[in-house]
Design a protein that fits this description.
The chain has one domain (about 1-65). It has four helices and two strands. The chain has helices spanning about 10-25, 25-30, 35-40, 60-65; strands at about 40-45, 50.
Length: about 70
């Protein structure tokens, strides 16, 4: 099956991707959409803006998860 597949490296594409990765910082990629919504206090759901609030957790298991 491998005989029917041609594998090759495109050096131009590899170099282009390496340049893009070098220009990125870890802080840009570390925030999830949920974290961004919490920071802003607003999330867009189904085309509507909704207020987002951070609430305290009440169960023992969820409190441990929140501390992590």
């Amino acid at each position: 099956m491998r005989a029917g597949i041609n594998l090759y490296k495109d050096e131009d594409v590899i170099n282009q991707l390496e340049k893009q990765l070098k220009s990125m910082s870890l802080t840009e990629a570390s925030k999830s959409p949920n974290d961004v919504a919490l920071d802003k206090g607003i999330a867009v759901v189904g085309g509507e803006s909704r207020m987002v609030h951070k609430a305290k957790r009440t169960t023992g298991e969820s409190k441990l998860e929140q501390e992590r």
